[in-house]
């Protein structure tokens, strides 16, 4: 293998490694984004439930709750 072939081989190896690392980084980014989205959805649900609970308390205290 001459120097030109060796350099070409090395460049190909570097390109392949770079693509593999980039793919791994993209997978990690997707996982992090999915985790963040799930966390935000859970937080949103908790806020919604607390707001509904607060509204129910106000309705109970003001006599506006029709369930009583």
Helix content: over 70%
The 3D shape can be described as rod-shaped
Q: Total number of β-strand segments?
A: 0
Sheet-strand content, in percent, reads under 5%
Secondary structure tally, helices: 1
Ranges where pLDDT stays below 50 over 5 or more residues in a row are none
Mean pLDDT: 92
Largest sheet: none
The computed structural class is mainly alpha
Estimated radius of gyration: 29 Å
Give the termini separation.
89 Å
SSE order, one letter for each helix or strand = H
Question: Can you offer a commentary on this structure?
Answer:
- Residues 1-17, 36-46 have a biased composition (Polar residues).
- It comes from Camelina sativa.
- InterPro entries: LEA1/2/D7/KIN2.
- Residues 18-31, 47-68 have a biased composition (Basic and acidic residues).
- This is Stress-induced protein KIN2-like.
- The chain is an all-alpha fold.
- It contains one helix and no strands.
- The chain has one helix at 3-62.
- The radius of gyration is 29 Å and the shape is rod-shaped.
- The mean pLDDT is 92.
Q: What's the short story on this structure?
A:
88% of the residues lie in helices and 0% in strands. With 68 residues, the chain is mainly alpha-helical.
What is the secondary structure topology, with strand pairs?
Elements: H1 3-62
Main attributes?
0% strand, Stress-induced protein KIN2-like, 68 residues, LEA1/2/D7/KIN2, mainly alpha, 1 helix
């Amino acid at each position: 293998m001459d120097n030109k072939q060796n350099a070409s081989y090395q460049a190909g190896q570097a390109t392949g490694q770079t693509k593999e690392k980039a793919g791994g980084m993209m997978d990690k980014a997707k996982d992090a984004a999915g985790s963040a989205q799930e966390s935000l959805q859970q937080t949103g649900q908790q806020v919604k439930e607390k707001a509904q609970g607060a509204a129910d308390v106000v309705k109970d205290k003001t006599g506006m709750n029709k369930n009583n």
